[in-house]
Task: structure prediction
Amino acid sequence: MLSASRSSFLLGGPAQQRLPILDLRLALTGALDSRITFTRASAAWDTDLNGNIVEFASGAPQVQAGIGLGIWEARTTKPLYSRCGSQLLSAVLASVPAEASVVSETNPASLLTNGGNVLQIDNSAGGSPVTVQMLGTVGSTSAHSLQTFARRVSGDPSTFQLEGAAETTSISATTYSRLKSENRTPADINRRFEVTVPAGAVARLAAWDAQLGAFCTPFIDATGAQKTRSADLASLLVSAIPGWNATQGTVVVHGNSRSPAAANATIVQIDNGASANIVPTLYHQTDEQAVFLIRTNETNRFATGFGALTDGLDWSMAAAFESGSNAAALNGTLGLTNSTAWTPSAATTTLRLGHNQISGSLLNGYFRRLRIFNSRRPNAQLPGLAT
Amino acid sequence: MIDLRLRFPDEASAIAALPALRGTDENGSGVWLTASHTHALDIIGPVGADSRWHANLRLLPGADPAIATAAEPFAVVPADPVRVWA
Result:
């Protein structure tokens, strides 16, 4: 759903408006505005709110109500370990006794060839939290990743991830979650999944997969040959946004980054098309710090220092830009301002969602909502917008 | 949509043949453009003992026809491809 108020032009420029000129409620609607150009050259998979694997055809955006728009870089499976394992999961953990139980699979060789990596837990009966434990040491040198998902069948959208050598976490009766681990050696993958479920709960180890690369992305269904899921690219020309202001504005983004990228992850980039004159870019740096970059004439200027992002948790950012006066806020905290001058953007400016000018440095996460105002909102308002 | 499985003697040959798929990152370094609204490029590199440079190229509607023209001389049809598009 998009709401855009009518604009008026006074003295040759757009009137400043208090309402956003673009409001993409992606998680609320589960739909993508028709003005956005979306491309993914292959099929893709993700899990829905119920933890079930959902396939998206080539070119179809991974946008779901309650989740938002997924933007992921291209990834390739490890062929030995990857395959949709819905059948297998049933075979391994199909039935859990009515009383509190431990269900485990040690060194699951069958899983290695039937892969998948979705741990689905239905704790709708409530009671004690479900505990998920993935045993084994963490490898840090291998360039592939293993991911595990777990989502509460119904519940609030809070998320978490597994970390540490002995990875243990809990899923309360009111949350659904995705679990992941990363940077594992093949031997590490050959480990034991142990799930403790309370009375009345149902646990299924649905699928799991391993991918080339240092961190996990959503599940890729692969049999036989290695499979590559292409990157998700979404962009729109600002000329399609009524009331666009070429000289100033404010971008507010609500999203979720599952994993830090190997390189800076682009959140939103506004590119006027001039060589090396990319104007504002919100970044999620490798140190998990959000950064508002103003790049002009091959010089980077940053507004930063406003806090850290936590992988897997929702975040909100607001960035106000105007030549000579830029600022940003993350999760309600205002960062350092930056006074860098930059060239006003032209009518051909492209707004990129989750990727940069060379279609790289992808977000690797979800957009839940994106708003654009056609004026530089005052610094005092940014923390409120970024909540 | 056009799918091409490409094999070059080495990466430098690929760079020379496919300049339209090259870009420059923010540090000024040349990089492969692995995705756009009109193409996807999956770089494979050497395959096992075959040290030649391999890649899968998928051209979408709107792609510059010159890219296909430049790539087709290097296209191969392996009986058992090691990597395919999802």
Summary: DSSP finds two helices and seven strands in chain B.
